[in-house]
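A quick aside before the break. I want you to see a complete sequence-to-structure record at least once, exactly as it would be stored in a machine-readable document. Don't worry about memorizing anything.
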Amino acid sequence: MEEEKKKKRIGIISDETLDLPEEMIKDLDISVVHYKMDFQELSNLEGDIYQRLRKAEEMGINSLIKTSQPSISDFLKAYKEKMEEFEEIICFTVSSKVSGAYNSALQAVKFIQSEAQKKITVFDSEGGTGELGLLIIRAAKMINEAKLGLSEINERLKKEVKNIKLIAFYDKAKWLEASGRVPKFIPMSGMEKITGIKPLLGLKGEKLTIIGIKRNVKNIADSLADEFSKRTEIIRQRGQKILVAITHADSIENAERLKNTIELLNNVRVVYINKLCPTIGGHTGPGAIALSWDENEN
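That is the input. The structure line, written in tokens, reads:
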């Protein structure tokens, strides 16, 4: 009888808001669970989500996509497949305050055999996009380099997730307003008419919200770089290394411009640039850009 193949230690699963480049997903052997997409009036348009949104704008179509969280069965399928290769699993999701994906992932564990349930941890990233990607990179290092166990990884990440941050700009306010993803207490569309004033977005209480107002904004990449420089100046000056992820809604020129600018700062390394997934980018609209960074000691 052929000897049973030995399982690897800990496998990683994530919902699709991790926004890591495909080659990194493959290298880290991450299983990705996708959201459900309803393109509505955009269904008859060609191209990716950003091409469709731009075309819809030209045609005067105001419809946006609708998204729904992965189902319990989606996560259950991912668990069963992953458990064929790995002894234990850690599953990451976008913040539980913005999606029900975390709850779906938790509920799916209950449909696994009782002994195996102890071998699955579901982790609320408290963020999304580059924040989630950087968190998973950190977890992968704990698994592959530090050889930590699942419970220790879980406890360390609970502390370290607080030091992974995000700031972002949209291009046109109408996309976010239509999505209902940002509080209405500041009239963003009206602000767009005032040259050079733009709300800075970030995560507060695990939700995307307005965390400041930037004035004299001529280029959103330059303004993000300036804000990042100010927010990280003290820790960079004391020699602490900062890892950065840049994610964008089909705005590669601004993403590259942002990368080139912040890499001139001391103790900063951009780990990757990648597009926002349709689940996020479909709500931000084309042109949005996010800068996420890890302030933990690297």
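Two observations worth writing down. Residues 95 and 126 are 4 Å apart (CA to CA). The chain has a mean pLDDT of 90. We'll return to this after the break.
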